[in-house]
Amino acid sequence: MKWLALLLGVGLSAQVVASDIINAKQLLTDMSSAIQERNFDASFVVVKGKGMEPYRWLHGKVEDSELEILSRQNGAGLEVVRVDNKVTYFEPQTQPYSIETDAIAGPIPEILFGEIGSLSNSYDFVLGGKERIADRAAQLVRLVSKDEHKYNYWLWIDIQSALLLKAAYVTQQGEVLEQLQLTHISVTEQPAQPLIELSSKDFPMPLASLAETENTQKLQNNWRIGWLPEGFKLLKSDRHKLDLNNELADYFLFSDGLVEFSVFVQRPLSGQRASGALSSGATTVYVHNSGAFDVSVVGKIPTMTAKAIAESVTRPL
Amino acid sequence: MTQSNFNVKDGQVTSSIFDAEQALDNASQAQFDADKFARYALIGDAMRSQQNQAPCIDITASMADALADEVTYGEQAPQQEPQKVRQEDNVVALSNWRKPLAQVAIAASVSLVAVLGVSNYAPQEQANGDFPVLQSTPVTGSVSPVSLSSEPALESAEKGLRELQQQRIGALVLEHQRQSRMAHALAQQAQEEKEEQEK
């Protein structure tokens, strides 16, 4: 009898786990389609430590085209406009430019608007509890990193409308580093007026080719990056000048689908400087002084991971 | 009306003098609030951790004064205590074996006074108004130096980092922000190419 009970118990718990995965994944898929289908006007804040950035987010469908506006409400500002597969960034001190892609790269990882299944190699989808967020019933879904080299990402999804209500980067120890919280959302039948006006406007042509733009050179195996956290792939490598200080850098961009990090190899600055890390919210900047060159790693990854990547960069033999 | 206007202005002037936004001349000195200035300086030093010693504010004298002026709590306490003391005296005089019992009784009465004292004290404290809450250690928390928000990292990075390095870090953060905008498109592009090759 005991054996039977044990078997039954194991069988039941396995079934529960399996349905959990389906549900968590299903919720995320529902969220992604809700964000793409509905007309909504939302406000949210991004809280990084003591800093706070308010945003407004409009989305709608006018005739057959999908329209979206994301704007930062404080400071110098940022406005991102999407018309179907063309995303245009308006920022101070830079000419507006467009990128051909189907999602705005803002505080919300783009993968959440698309095919989240590709994340299952690096993250587990775990269903959490129910909570009240922004005065709505929300279901917590956790993206749990399969190793300790990445942060976890938690999402709270509106049970009724499947829209995103809250999201946070959480360390392996459960400490919240950076969170995004909706303060208001209204889902409407008709798209908001600013969106309707968008469809009659012209935007810059998308950058011709993403991999090669002006002033960049293809990088010929200049550096060997000895260690990468599991699941990250190289998306881009080149040599170009940085916008702000016109310094030349060998550049690598890596992504695991959810987060990206950049590796810069540069001429060392004069003087003895120790290697070290800075952080703001989930973003880490690790600067490693290896003597003959400086390696900097920037991204939403733990400091120890950034340090290990930076220190693994060597010249090829 | 004019009084309140004056006060507000006064505070502003002190603050702007302190921030070096206004020169310290005769006109501004007239509205100079020395106490406030000293307080601001102390706050500034504490925030910058330049104060080697924690600010030490001696409140023992004022506490002693306040206690001296304090009304004795409740009428019962003074009445009860002499009785108890008298009882104890009697007990000691009569016999030694009752001493422990008497001690228990005293202990009980003392605790009763203490309870009375506490319950009396709470409303009195409220009536007295605000006891200053001292926070001698400045709440600085961890340093989060790079401003990723509006003016990407043009603001100061960690204390002690050279300006050049600050500038570089700012440039790196901005560049990462810009480049990662393309990440999604690049990933999709790579995916499509891979699928085409497989066909």
UniProtKB/TrEMBL annotation, chain A:
Signal sequence coordinates? none
Q: Which domain of life is it from?
A: Bacteria
Q: Where in the cell is it found?
A: Periplasm
Q: Which residues form the MucB/RseB N-terminal domain?
A: 24-193
Q: Which UniProt keywords apply?
A: Periplasm, Signal
Could you confirm whether the keyword Transferase appears in this record? no
Its predominant location is periplasm
Provide a GO CC annotation, any one: outer membrane-bounded periplasmic space
The text of the family note is: Belongs to the RseB family.
Q: What is this protein called?
A: Anti-sigma E factor
What is the protein's species of origin? Pseudoalteromonas rubra
Automatic annotation (TrEMBL), chain B:
The membrane topology noted for this protein in its Swiss-Prot or TrEMBL record is: Single-pass membrane protein
Q: Which InterPro entries match?
A: Anti-sigma-E_RseA-like, Anti-sigma_E_RseA_C, Anti-sigma_E_RseA_N, Anti-sigma_E_RseA_N_sf
Q: Identify the residues that the record assigns to the Anti sigma-E protein RseA N-terminal domain, covering every copy.
A: 21-83
The main location is membrane
Q: Where is the Anti sigma-E protein RseA C-terminal domain?
A: 132-182
Could you list this entry's UniProt keywords, alphabetically sorted. Answer: Cell membrane, Membrane, Transmembrane, Transmembrane helix
Highest rank taxon of the organism: Bacteria
One GO cellular component this record assigns the protein to is: plasma membrane
Where, per UniProt, does this protein localize? Cell membrane
Q: Answer whether the UniProt record assigns the keyword Amino-acid biosynthesis to this protein.
A: no
Any idea what this protein is called?
A: Anti-sigma 24 factor
* Organism whose genome encodes this protein: Pseudoalteromonas rubra
